[in-house]
Amino acid sequence: MLRLEPRAAPSRAMLLLSPLIALAVTVLFGAALFAVLGKNPLAGLALFFVEPVKNLDGLAELGMKATPLILCGLGLAACYRANVWNIGAEGQFVLGAIAAGGLALHAGDGTTRWVLVPILFAGMLGGMAWAGIVAFLRDRFNANEILTSLMLVYVAQYLLDDLVYGPWKDPHGYNFPQTALFAASTILPKLIPDTRLNIGFAIAMVAVVMMSLFMRRTLQGFRLIVGGQAPEAARYAGFSARKSLWTVLLLSGGMSGLAGALEAVGPLGQLTPHVSQGYGFAAIIVAFVGRLHAVGIVFSGLLMAMFYIGGELAQSRLGLPNAMTGVFQGLLLFCLLAADTLVTHRVRLARAGVRHA
Amino acid sequence: MHEFALLLASALSAGTPLALASLGLLVNEKSGVVNLGAEGMMLMAAIAGFAVAVTTGNQWLAFGAGAVVGGLLAALVGLLVLWLGTNQYATGLALSLFGAGLSAFVGLDYVGRNLPPFGPVHIPLLSGLPFVGPALFSHHLMVYLTMLLALGIHLFLHRTRAGLVLRAVGESPQSAHALGYPVRRIRLLALMFGGALCGVAGAYLSVIYTPMWVQGMTAGRGWIALALTTFATWRPGRVLLGAYLFGGVTMLQFYFQGAGVQVPSQLLSMLPYVATIVVLALMSRNPVWIRVNMPASLGKVFRPME
Fold first, then answer.
1. What is the ipTM metric for this complex?
2. Could you tell me how many CB contacts below 8 A there are between chain A and chain B?
3. Letter string b/e over residues B53-84, b meaning 16 or more CB atoms within 10 A of that residue's CB
């Protein structure tokens, strides 16, 4: 019979291996699912793991989809490291898109390209404001951030709906709930010509480096981590828990807001009720699978982007529902949590009869 | 006056799934485990219940299916959280994300399907009374069962030995373990009970309340139910009251629209979520009060010392 036995120290190898184990289990499940649905499992898996990286167009698409996931994931990772359970990146993303989109919508045709700077800043501020509400409610009223941040996702979505169905609706848009297309000067320049990859991906990569430096090389980053792992020690050292709370939430809100802005003035070029395809929620998984580590998040962001693209391909080529993406994402997180047991425990074969209570 | 009776009636009806889910979550939180997977369990149970109702035409089988699905998913969380010692927040969150995805996936064939209406129970004599008749005494049977359930859970927790053990496990798992109670098994049962009730709530939504299947149809009710246990300081009677209040807030938008108040419908739709935030902030304001009422080991990992 198998027995779990605590390790003396967490296994560093397992820390890196467990996301791979989780991925392997998810892939096996995916293959089984394809088989059950009467499709060739290998062909199905190829749509998820081969097609997106087959050529330049595919890679560009992958980078574009990974951009919001990486940005939101970075911010969330900082929150989780500090033991602040922000699960409302989706709402902060939407607010960023609203703020940036509002500015882009009102920029005339003659504006210079530099208008993008205030647009992206507006997005960041929008996301920060939304996360700031969460920080304020927790700081001032002790309100649970899990619930407030999640409730604000719904509020943000209705706010967006109200704008695109109401005052911001395109007057020439045949009554569709969407804004007019933004002026060309407000659209992000391309990173690789003739693909959809824009400078948003470069911005995300800069964010990865900055975030990594912040968490590993600055005192404030150190304070956050200590506050998250050992609150008593942090208090003894005089690190302010309030300051940590505000720092991580504003940071995370700013990142998510920036991601929303990049999406609005990037691939979308207008606001619709569907600016986010659940990126803020998927980013929670990205953060955990990336081990709350900046570089890890790049990989997990790309992986999650593969799930998105694979889901779309499975829909268009095999006629399978797009909802599969969500199934795989959720499953991956489940498997990861289970596999993480191996970081702190080892599996031992125990003979029957010598079981302890 | 007639509109107000209808508002009251719809508040009871809209509050019932919130109350069911929240009463269930209250029990597992009393045992010291928080399950953030409520939303995912409700969604999975909603589609399972709907599928069973469409196939069999029997609403009680649908409730049963919802309860089984909710209970099994909660058992999965229990396995991870109790035996593998995973983080309770992350694990519940994983279930919510997974449930949202899987329910959308399996529910595709049921989008746009219709159900025969399962009618309300008109309580003889009482339902004929003016005003209170339509407001209070002409509901689906589940509405009344939920009220009885709140009473039952209250009595169980505070008047039975098993309830005392459950609360002891939530307050001090180490002491309960030392006294020889199987802490993890008790918590697993409490989790499954909570999941089963979330499941019944989900099935009520898709089979009775709406009645149809739409992707993501729970619209955050699982999370509101989680917030309700805190508002109600883990007391069944207050959970019931809070759920009806929130049901009323949900219904207020239709009431306003009927009364011709000119507010964009999206802003009115925000009301339940904004109300949750406001009430949560007000109730949490006093940390001592929350700490006194909250099960002491809530959210913490328990490892029996060997």
1. 0.88
2. 143
3. bbeeeebebbbbbbbbbbbbbbbbbbbbbbeb
